[in-house]
From TrEMBL:
The chain crosses the membrane at residues 6-25. This is Type II secretion system protein G. The lineage of its organism: Bacteria, Bacillati, Bacillota, Clostridia, Lachnospirales. It comes from Anaerostipes caccae (strain DSM 14662 / CCUG 47493 / JCM 13470 / NCIMB 13811 / L1-92). Keywords: Membrane, Transmembrane, Transmembrane helix.
């Protein structure tokens, strides 16, 4: 009889954890949709020359001190896609969306939609070969996951 009680308690705990994760996930998804809407409303088109692109820590990317101070500790440690571009006479590091990072050509002129320091979309690639599909199971899985999260948030 005690084995059934233990299994019942474990099942109840697992169901409770899954329910909590479901509600927290919904809350975070709504928050992400609101942030995407803000990014889209503040976005502007810029013509820029891409100098370099790397995945590096925010502290090493060359962002102003004011930007670095606003980032939480976890964000300072994580590697993010950074693109160094020349907009007019000024060389600026910009953050790039994970989905379009592989599509950004190096040493080429592009038109991109920029919101603050974040590149959200790329338009009008000049003299650039189309990007290759990612090779490897995990890269393809990551791309599908990002595309699915975009489709859920209403952005395609």
């Amino acid at each position: 009889m005690q084995v059934w009680m233990v299994l019942l308690i474990i099942a109840v705990v697992i169901i409770a954890v899954l329910a909590i994760l479901y509600f927290v996930g919904n809350k975070l998804q709504k928050k992400q949709e609101a942030q995407r809407a803000q990014l889209e409303s503040a976005a502007q088109m810029y013509s820029m020359l891409v100098i370099d692109k790397k995945k590096m820590k925010m502290t090493e990317a060359g962002f102003p001190k004011m930007v670095i101070d606003q980032i939480p500790k976890r964000g300072k440690i994580a590697k993010v896609p950074v693109v160094k571009v020349k907009i007019g006479p000024k060389i600026t590091p910009l953050l790039c969306d994970e989905l379009i990072y592989d599509q950004v050509p190096v040493k080429a002129e592009i038109k991109a939609k920029v919101s603050g320091i974040y590149i959200t979309e790329i338009h009008n690639l000049r003299n650039v070969a189309p990007p290759q599909e990612p090779k490897g199971f995990f890269k393809k899985f990551k791309k599908k996951t990002i595309e699915a999260s975009r489709n859920v948030s209403g952005r395609k």
